[in-house]
């Protein structure tokens, strides 16, 4: 039984002390691969560097909505160059949780990266935090792309629309929380052929490890909870979600 973590920030500073150890240790936890999103240009470069070094590490490149104010004039052009060695453009999207002052800039950068993905025929990985209406309005023009909604946490109506558009959904550690009602609903309703697992490490640590730093080796807890919710064998959840990740990212 092999698992794939479709979204983990192993290049974040929280892993500076043991990043390489974790990557080498993944196979001991039946983890076939980890896919690392980019949040800015420097981080995207590091993702690509590690992807060239490790066969079980795959890079995404992109500008996260929370990083748009710090980006340089040529950053998107550099991201496009890096994309030849990446499996997706991500994570990209909108985030209105921390601030709404950058809404217009976020939208501009989001659309530019969606256009980039279309030009390069790359999948996209979407970040959405308290911006569902704008996310859906923009993505309605990009239904031709392969789209993963990372860390899905919105309502059933939104989920149905995403399913109608052919998008994929990835679910993380929140599904193990008592508060994760939307995540549990998604875990039950998403067609198994459109579902992926993620940790969003170092964030959203699943139970029973909540309060500790998250890392991809804890993804089994997400898989177990989804298997419980769906009334499926853990091995079947692992088989399908890994198959979906391989096909979506062309691993």
From TrEMBL:
Keyword field: Hydrolase, Metal-binding
InterPro entries: DNase_TatD-rel_CS, Metal_Hydrolase, TatD-like, TatD/YcfH-like
Transferase found in the keyword field: no
GO MF annotations in UniProt: DNA nuclease activity; hydrolase activity, acting on ester bonds; metal ion binding
Binding site residues for a divalent metal cation 1: 7, 9, 91, 200
SUPFAM superfamilies named in the record: Metallo-dependent hydrolases (SSF51556)
Gene Ontology terms: cellular component: cytosol
A Pfam family this chain is assigned to: TatD_DNase
Residues that coordinate or bind a divalent metal cation 2: 127, 150
PROSITE patterns, alphabetized: TATD_2, TATD_3
PANTHER family registered for this protein in UniProt: D-AMINOACYL-TRNA DEACYLASE
Descriptive protein name: Hydrolase, TatD family
């Amino acid at each position: 039984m092999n698992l794939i973590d479709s979204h983990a920030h192993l290049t974040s500073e929280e892993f500076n002390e043991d990043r390489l150890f974790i990557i080498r240790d993944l196979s001991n936890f039946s983890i076939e691969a980890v896919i690392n999103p980019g949040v800015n240009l420097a981080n995207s470069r590091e993702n690509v560097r590690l992807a060239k070094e490790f066969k079980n590490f795959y890079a995404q490149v992109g500008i996260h909505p929370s990083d748009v104010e710090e980006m340089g004039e040529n950053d998107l052009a550099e991201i496009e160059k890096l994309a030849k060695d990446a499996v997706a453009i991500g994570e990209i999207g909108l985030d209105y949780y921390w601030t709404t002052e950058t809404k217009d800039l976020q939208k501009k950068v989001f659309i530019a990266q969606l256009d980039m993905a279309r030009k390069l025929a790359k999948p996209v990985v979407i970040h959405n935090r308290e911006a569902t209406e704008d996310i859906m309005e923009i993505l309605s023009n990009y239904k031709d792309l392969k789209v993963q909604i990372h860390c899905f946490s919105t309502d059933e109506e939104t989920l149905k629309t995403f399913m109608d558009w052919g998008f994929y959904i990835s679910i993380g550690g929140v599904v193990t929380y008592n508060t994760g009602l939307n995540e549990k609903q998604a875990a039950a309703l998403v067609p198994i052929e459109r579902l992926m697992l993620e940790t969003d490490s170092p964030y959203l640590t699943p139970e029973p490890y909540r309060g500790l730093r998250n890392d991809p080796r804890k993804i089994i807890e997400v898989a177990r909870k989804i298997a419980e919710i769906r009334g499926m064998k853990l091995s079947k959840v692992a088989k399908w979600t890994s198959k979906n990740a391989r096909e979506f990212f062309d691993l």
